[in-house]
């Protein structure tokens, strides 16, 4: 049911908006700009800066009858209030008359600007915000040409104050609007900033250890209306008007945040262009106007001097530089010799176009193309995924969200932020995990289970809803029954499932159980209902959609049977060096990579690939939204896009694919991939009007996030919405190794992968190389927290410090992925004190 409309007049324009709309928003919707500093449309108003002052009048009413009093012409008599009102704190009323541009209102704003400038530095020519500064723009419009205040009374404050590793504060530029403080508290629940002192000495400080400890700190620089907050890697780096802009998509996680890559030619880079900063690009259905700090700062790998720039071929046991012609000829000869015993292994960070051509090539030679990932369930997402038109921003009272076997804060921070916001609007949140995560704080029901029991818990929810016990040991458990009631009674239900504590088969079983739950509760085939997989790679769902799956034999068996191995965006032997032992002597290895990884070091041929910054293509998000990214920089050396390398290789293998561009490849995807039928790049490039307006002339209102003019993407309808028959399988179980100690790898945001470690500004924030057990575990080993212990795995010994995580069950050892310990799924280990 739509909200009732209220009609008012602003500067002579009649406006009809929903009841409860703020006057400043009502004005903006009809093209009337009321300047603001502290107000932001994503946050509750506070009326601190007083910049949005307006005159407000209301219809005069008879005191006895309450009827509107009219003049001789029958028009309502308007009584204006004696003082100006802040339009950001005032809701619209029927018949209200607002004068936003009257002499009195403009004079009030002029006074506010004059006060703000009393101690503000006149450093616009060197300020990082120059050209996109709200104060600069509004000073030109409302500010005095000459200050009446004495220069001797100016406050002189510190101009280079580190709030943390990533953000700097210029205290003199700060106008105390509190946007940054309120963002951290209200939008991401990281209240790590605050005010210190009073009056003119009021300043922003950070209270956390480490300082400004938040995964979302960079967003404060976007909404800061002045140049007070700047990022470490952009401060004094360029002027906004010098920058070129290219629309892109973040590749780091399945959210698929929309980005703008700002580039500029640099003398220090030999006259070539480099990425100077990464900004959020507005997409209200995906990331709104926010991005996490990993997406903002983990781009420096693209310009790393360690990038591969030309093909390499192994000669006399050494990898040496070669021409493309020689490398392609050598690779084709090795693959021809292997024939049907060619195994292709692809990683889910490659684009849809790359993965599609990769599968086509392997099929053409009679080989097998498999996916290198421990996460399954993409087929269930394709069938039972969220319906078209889904937007997490719309979830609230009466809706429900289930998050199981996933730590969203570490694995997909923007999803975490949007789920947190939905819970704040009244959505019932159910969190099921083997340990405590940040989402538990907001959950209506938390379910704690032992690692290995995630599928049992999901099956128990199905049993509680359907009334059929099935084979779950948790059917009838009070917490499970309470959660099932919340989920079954919800108007809309979205289920996020992850892979924490599970292997490939376990995540497939969990996806199946979650799909059964959605079917039983009738939450499929419509917007804001369905299944979402929380994978560790950005294009995992795209890989599943184009037909890639894990090898049912397991990688060791598959490698043992191969005579040639082709690796695409997958550092197989770096992730697990023991896999190299499964290769027979003489197996021919081809690698397409950005860097000389451990896998590349073992290769016979290495092809240098382009990063997402140097090419165009598409990714598919976990919500099955296909989005297009564009080339921002010229190619690094002789690199080529992965799909192009594969097409060139196919030609040497006497297979003509007929692809001359990404457009051609995507056209074939649209013809042959289920659900993508008829999709075009033009469809992905369409945009609609979004609220709030941001960037350009609206930067003072919504911040400096980029306005989206290059496409919102297209959400693929799940099979349930298209009437495709796909029956969820029988409920299955999953297990973890039976051992005194079980190592469980978990995802942490700042991992030690090459795409992150190349960023100098992120190095202080990289995940700690530690093991985590509970208090009883530390006592059992006989050490104190912080001391080093031995971890024995597959005949190898690793020495790491141990810390306490109280929520863990006995016998569980947590370690962050990419720490040099070759375990991608739960593994039996031994722990000992260092002898």
Q: Could you walk me through the main structural features you see in this protein, from its secondary elements to its overall organization?
A:
It is a single chain. 25% of the residues lie in helices and 20% in strands. With 835 residues, it is of the alpha/beta class. Helix 7 (324-338) crosses helix 19 (642-652), helix 12 (454-466) packs across helix 13 (478-488) and helix 12 (454-466) runs parallel beside helix 14. The strands form 8 sheets. A 7-stranded mixed sheet has the order 16-15-26-25-24-17-18. Strands 1, 2, 3, 4, 5 and 6 form a 6-stranded mixed sheet that branches. It is built from 25 helices and 35 strands.
Brief summary of the model shown:
This protein has 835 residues and is an alpha/beta fold. It has 25 helices and 35 strands.
How many structural domains in the coordinates? 5
Structural class: alpha/beta
CATH secondary-structure class of the largest domain: Alpha Beta
Which architecture of the largest domain would the CATH scheme give at its second level?
Answer: 3-Layer(aba) Sandwich
- Main sheet, how many strands, which sense, barrel? 7 strands, mixed
Give Rg in angstroms. Answer: 29 Å
Q: Which features characterize this protein?
A:
835 residues, 5 domains, seven-stranded mixed β-sheet, Rossmann fold, Ubiquitin-like (UB roll)
